[in-house]
Structures are given as C-alpha cells and as structure tokens.
Amino acid sequence: MEDKRILYVSSEVVPYLAENEVSMMSYDVPKMVNDQGGQIRIFMPRYGNINERRHQLHEVIRLSGMNLVVNDLDMPLIIKVASIPKERIQVYFIDNDEYFKRKATFTDEDGTLYPDNDERAIFFAKGVVETVKKLNWVPDIIHVHGWLASMLPIYMKHYYKDEALFADTKIVTSVYTQSFEGALDPEMINKVKFDGVPEDSVSVLTDPNFDNLMKAAVDHSDGVIIASESVSSSLTKYIESSGKPFLSFVPKNQFAEAYTRFYGLL
C-alpha cells in the first residue's frame, strides 16, 4: 500500500462518535493503510453531538466559504479538521448549520429519521468532492462507508464525471447491515435529478429505503465489500449479481490482508 492514496468517506468514525460496525471499520481500515505507508484522508459529517472542544476541531478558513446548491438552495460549506490522537491521521469534517448543528446523527430524540436526511447526504457528497478538489489531492481509491455517504458514488459518476482530477479514481463501497427503518424523503430522486443525474440510473431511489440507497451506490461503484456478516440476502444477491468485483465478508482479525488484496485488484 506504499504511497497509495485512499480517500475514506464515512457517515461515522470513532473516536468522534460511538462505536459500531461502521464507525470502527471507518477508523481501522484507514489506520491499516496508514501503517502500511499509504496516504489517506478521512471525511465525515460534523454532527452537533461531536464534542468540538474535546476533539480539538478547528475550522479551515481556506477550505470553507463556498456555497453548495442542494435542491436549488444555496447552502454554505464549512470545513473543520482534527487529528486522531497518536495516529497522525487527519479527519476532515463537512459542516453546515442547517444540516448538521442538531445534537444527533440521523434521528430525533423519538427515533424518527430527520426529514432532510436525503439533502444532508447530497450536501455531504458534494462537500467532500469540492474540498478534495481544493486540496488538489488525487485519490487512487475512494472508499465509502455508511448509508449517509451513499450518494458519493452516484455524484462521482455523473455530477463530477468530467473532473480530470478523478479520471483514474476507483470507488469502493462497503455495505453494512446498519440500516434505518422506513424511507427517506420520496422527493429524493427529484433532488438528485435536479443535479443532472439521469433518472434511469437511479430509478431505485423512487423508494429511497436503505436497501435501495445501497443498490444505487453499488451500481455506481467499481468494487463492493460486504462489510457485515449479516447483510440481507437480497442485498447480498444484488451485489453478487452486479458484475462488480466484490469481497465477501471477512472477520475483523483478517480484514487487513483481504482489503489490501482487493484494493490491488481495482
């Protein structure tokens, strides 16, 4: 992995949020590549329940300040950064007061999904790509973790398809069991179409439930990792029949060798 450049885009990363399958792998995999001499960047949303003082987040003025359009609305992009202690790993945080100031990740105190989670996902995807462009850092691989990051493969293959910076970049999506009940805003497909994404390429988003979000991400990825032992049989079958290179689930104590080999296949 020496000198390989890998961009990790995740909806959750430890130590900034509680430990779960997504947040822990979103730390363990970049650390593994970092330890092998690869170059990495990690991006995640700056949710309001992340303690900025404890984790020493600070705004990066030179990267902040642009506006991103989501469903015809201008939304200011704020970029913050922090370092994971002892690991010399920088994490970039995509922030916007409208989308991420609330004191929770995906649901309110009653467990109800935020009605704008679809727009938060679109804003996050665009924010990551625009920031990487400003950094002028060309990733060999973009590795996506968590459903809130699932719009990134779609936007890379359509909205940013003419960006020379990413001409040779491959996209890997890890699919986890960690899902949500119900569906996102039924208008989601129209918000994605607003950005010039062809309807036939994201037709599954007419019903934006968890499985369909992941199917859309798989369709726009160059490789797929089944990252949980208990991914639903329908999603597993979809991945296996997608024609994409895929890696079946491997236990945590074996992932380093398997992921390194899989990256090398792309």
Mean pLDDT: 96
Tally of DSSP β-strands? 11
**SSE string:** EHEHEEEEEHHEHEHHEHEH
Instruction: Give the amount of beta strand, in percent.
Output: 15-25%
The share of residues in helices is: 25-40%
End-to-end Cα distance, whole Å, is 13 Å
Briefly characterize the structure.
32% of the residues lie in helices and 20% in strands. The chain is of the alpha/beta class.
Can you characterise this structure?
This protein has 266 residues and is of the alpha/beta class. 32% of the residues lie in helices and 20% in strands. It has helices spanning 21-35, 52-55, 97-100, 117-135, 151-157, 188-194, 210-219, 233-240, 255-265; strands at residues 5-10, 39-45, 58-59, 67-70, 73-76, 78-84, 89-95, 141-145, 170-175, 223-226, 246-247. It has a nine-stranded mixed beta sheet, sandwiched between helices. A two-stranded antiparallel ribbon has the order 4-5. Strand 4 and strand 5 (73-76) form a beta hairpin. Helix 4 crosses helix 5. The radius of gyration is 17 Å and the shape is globular.
